[in-house]
């Protein structure tokens, strides 16, 4: 079976695709998997690093306002569709699975009428690419109810290390790795793979003003960002955390953005959080966090309102209240999906088999 995955650009599109690829390989190691991407996306590094074949197609961003790009869009899109369709024939694709982003539009349009299509939407508010693809897809999967018509609620495919994580069992070894005392409360702070400057600055100010007192802070500041405060016995700044399973196990609470993958992982492992949604885009991050906030498993604060005062007056009282932490942990865990990769893989295999008949 030949499976083609289209999900380039950001980690939010690539990671679910790669997690699905891992699950498909577990089901049948003989499955051939090819990932479509563009030269400008993170897939150039992430896909080969996971051991999968990457084929580049032209990027065709859809202009959101009147410009010269809008005039040339039809020509560029036709060319990208033709190149992608030729590639799908060369690969003898049995199914095309799209995850949104620039690469998905030409993939969906190239596959339409010739190859079975499955669309997966990670966010509560679907992007343009998936709204287009869902109209003629053979199957649609979603992470949040109501994001797309005809969608099956599956959740977002997670890494096996997160799907199977038992935070309690790993807590001691995780804290030893990061140099955090067993008896100390710990807040994990991150802003996605690139970090978040606003969150970094507020956390730095909190550290310098002593807001956290004896609480340990494990802070992923982002590869391109400077450490926001000097390291100490209670403050652990890191450019990047490659073992998020250990970071989740070491933490009692999280401060982060609200990307779909982040929300899904925290729900799956039952880790309470304060979400600070990215203030740009179409507002999907606030919508992503909505269900777990409503359930009582997380807090949400707009980017503009996230401040030293908010951390001191709203987050710290929660962190120091064991009963509140446990209640939030239980609440967020009720919305977690630990078998999403398997469910999506089964759906993809079913569509591909039907296409072979």
State the strand order across the main sheet.
Answer: 3-2-1-4-5-6-7
What number of structural domains do the residues give?
2
Strand content: 15-25%
Runs in which pLDDT lies below 50 for 5 or more consecutive residues are none
The CATH topology label of the largest domain is: Rossmann fold
Helical content, roughly?
40-55%
The CATH homology group name of the largest domain: Glycogen Phosphorylase B
Give me the count of strands: 13
General shape: elongated
Supply the number of helical segments: 14
Give helix and strand order, one letter per element, not per position. Answer: EHEHEHEHEHEEHHEHEEHEHEHEHHH
Alpha carbon gyration radius: 21 Å
Could you characterize what this model shows?
With about 350 residues, the chain is α/β, with parallel strands linked by helices. It folds into 2 domains: about 1-160 and about 340-355, 3-Layer(aba) Sandwich (Rossmann fold), CATH 3.40.50; about 160-335, 3-Layer(aba) Sandwich (Rossmann fold). It has 14 helices and 13 strands. The chain has helices at about 10-25, 45-50, 70-90, 105-110, 130-135, 160-165, 165-180, 195-210, 245-250, 260-270, 285-295, 310-320, 320-335, 340-355; strands at about 1-5, 30-35, 55, 95-100, 115-120, 140, 150-155, 185-190, 215-220, 235-240, 255, 275, 300. A 7-stranded parallel beta sheet has the order 3-2-1-4-5-6-7, with helices on both faces. A 6-stranded parallel beta sheet has the order 10-9-8-11-12-13, with helices on both faces. Helix 1 (about 10-25) packs across helix 14, helix 3 packs across helix 4 (about 105-110) and helix 7 crosses helix 9. The longest helix has 24 residues, at about 70-90. The protein is elongated, with a radius of gyration of 21 Å. The mean pLDDT is about 90. InterPro entries: GlcNAc_MurG, Glyco_trans_28_C, GlycoTrans_28_N. It holds the Pfam family Glyco_transf_28. GO terms for molecular function: undecaprenyldiphospho-muramoylpentapeptide beta-N-acetylglucosaminyltransferase activity.
């Amino acid at each position: 079976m030949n499976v083609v995955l289209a999900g380039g650009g950001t980690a939010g599109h690539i990671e679910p695709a790669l997690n699905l690829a891992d699950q498909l390989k577990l089901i049948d190691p003989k499955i051939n998997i090819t990932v479509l991407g563009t030269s400008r996306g993170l897939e150039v590094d992430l896909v080969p690093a996971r051991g999968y074949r990457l084929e580049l197609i032209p990027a065709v961003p859809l202009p959101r306002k009147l410009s010269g790009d809008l005039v040339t869009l039809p020509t560029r899109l036709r060319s990208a569709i033709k190149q992608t369709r030729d590639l799908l024939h060369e690969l003898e694709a049995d199914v095309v699975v799209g995850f949104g982003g620039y690469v998905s539009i030409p993939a969906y349009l190239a596959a339409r009428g010739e190859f079975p299509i499955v669309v997966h939407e990670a966010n509560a508010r679907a992007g343009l690419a998936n709204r287009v693809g869902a109209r003629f897809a053979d199957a649609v999967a979603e992470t949040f109810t109501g994001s797309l018509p005809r969608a099956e609620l599956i959740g977002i495919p997670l890494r096996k290390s997160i799907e199977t994580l038992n935070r309690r069992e790993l807590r001691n070894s995780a804290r030893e790795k990061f140099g955090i005392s067993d008896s100390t409360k710990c807040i994990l702070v991150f802003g996605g793979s690139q970090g978040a400057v606003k969150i970094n600055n507020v956390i730095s100010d909190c550290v310098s003003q002593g807001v956290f007192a004896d609480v340990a802070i494990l802070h992923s500041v982002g590869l391109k960002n400077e450490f926001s405060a000097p390291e100490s016995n209670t403050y652990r700044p890191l450019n990047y955390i490659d073992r998020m399973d250990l970071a989740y196990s070491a933490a009692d609470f999280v401060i982060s953005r609200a990307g779909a993958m982040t929300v899904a992982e925290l729900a799956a492992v039952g880790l309470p959080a304060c979400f600070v949604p990215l203030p740009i885009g179409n507002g999907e991050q606030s919508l992503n966090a909505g269900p777990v906030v409503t359930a009582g498993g997380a807090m949400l604060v707009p980017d503009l309102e996230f401040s030293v005062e908010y951390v001191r007056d709203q987050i710290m009282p929660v962190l120091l209240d064991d009963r509140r932490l446990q209640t939030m942990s239980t609440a967020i865990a009720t919305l977690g999906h630990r078998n999403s990769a398997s469910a999506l893989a089964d759906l993809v295999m079913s569509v591909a088999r039907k296409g072979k008949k």
